[in-house]
Structure formats: structure tokens, C-alpha cells
Design brief:
Blueprint (H helix, E strand, L loop, with lengths): L2 E4 L6 E4 L4 H12 L3 H6 L2 E2 L12 H22 L4 H16 L4 H26 L3 H13 L6 H8 L3 H12 L3 H13 L1
Length: about 190
């Protein structure tokens, strides 16, 4: 069982896998919704009393819990619109950093940094690139295919809306044309 504890607030609450799905999801939703201030205030703890044991070795146990929590954070953020490439890269970087640590407190601190980093990325994504399902899907398509020529018709077909509606919605939500966004992503990858 995973338990995350938010502490030092006017309320403490537990997230227990298998015991209260609604509470379990709230931590991941806070991250995927980009609620940085809440996460900074209520610092999620990776390990608390009563948590399941994945290894008899306490450092290895903490590492395993870190990997599971990071995978769940990554999945929630992808579902909320973070481009897969960005999410997996961020996840991989944190897991590699954790793998070099041998101190439980340092791993726990890195977990908090990981959650905050993902939350900040989600906050920025929502601020800069809109949050409608169509735009998130379009951004995912672009992220998955930016290394080859992309046509607006391909994107609109993949998300089942017209080119005209996609172009107008993209401009409205992001402030950028879809063509400019594609070119920007391709330029970033070339650097």
C-alpha cells in the first residue's frame, strides 16, 4: 500500500491505495492540475508509517516507492495534456538522479522536488497552451511527430475535428498559430 501524507497544514490527510481511491487521486490531480502552491504548502511525503514494504532493505524500499510514485505522476500529467516526450524525459531524469542517492531523506526530498517540477510544468503548459481536450491532443500529436513534416490536416484527422476549427481553437487557446507552434517545436529539437 502507498500512503502519501500532506503535513503542516490546517488539515492532514492520507492517501491510501486500495482504501480511498478519491483521496489517492487527489495528490496526483494536484500535480497534474499544476497546483504548485498547494504542493509546496503541504509537502507530500513519500514514506509514512503503515506503508507497504516492497523490499526489506530500507533504501531500496524507498527507491521502489519513488519509482512507482514518479510513474504515476508521469501518467497523470500525460493524461492531463503534457507531451509524452516531455513527461518521460522528466521522469527519467528524476529516476536517474534518485538512483545515485543512498540516503532515504535525500530520496524523499527529491520526490518532493519531482512533484513540484511536474506541477510547475503542468501549470505552465495550461497557461501557455490551453487546456481543451482538442488542443492537448493536437499538442501530443505534434510532440510525437515533430521530427517529420506535419500537416494540419493530419492533426485534425487524428483528433476528428475540421482543420478550420482546429486552427481557430489553437489560436484562441494558445495565442499562436498551429503552424508557428509546429515550427517552434521543430526548431527546439534541432538545437
Amino acid at each position: 500500500h502507498f500512503i502519501f501524507l500532506y503535513s503542516k497544514g490546517f488539515f492532514d490527510f492520507f492517501i491510501k491505495v486500495g482504501n480511498n481511491k478519491k483521496m489517492e487521486m487527489s495528490f496526483y490531480e494536484e500535480v497534474s492540475n499544476g497546483n504548485v502552491e498547494h504542493l509546496e504548502k503541504f509537502k507530500p511525503q513519500l514514506l509514512v508509517k503503515g506503508q507497504g514494504i516492497l523490499s526489506e532493505d530500507s533504501v531500496r524500499n524507498t527507491r521502489y516507492h519513488f519509482v512507482v510514485a514518479t510513474a504515476l505522476i508521469t501518467r497523470f500529467c500525460i493524461e492531463a495534456g503534457m507531451p509524452k516526450e516531455d513527461a518521460y524525459t522528466t521522469s527519467d531524469l528524476f529516476i536517474r538522479r534518485m538512483d545515485k542517492l543512498n540516503d532515504i531523506d535525500e530520496i524523499i526530498e527529491l520526490h518532493q522536488e519531482c512533484a513540484i517540477t511536474f506541477a510547475k510544468a503542468m501549470r505552465d503548459l495550461k497557461k501557455n497552451y490551453g487546456s481543451s481536450s482538442y488542443i492537448r491532443q493536437a499538442i501530443d500529436y505534434i510532440s510525437a511527430n515533430f521530427n517529420k513534416p506535419i500537416k494540419i490536416s493530419q492533426i485534425s484527422e487524428s483528433i476528428h475535428i475540421s482543420e478550420k476549427y482546429l486552427s481557430a481553437l489553437f489560436k484562441k487557446e494558445t495565442g499562436s498559430t498551429i503552424v508557428a507552434y509546429i515550427e517552434e517545436r521543430q526548431m527546439e529539437s534541432a538545437c
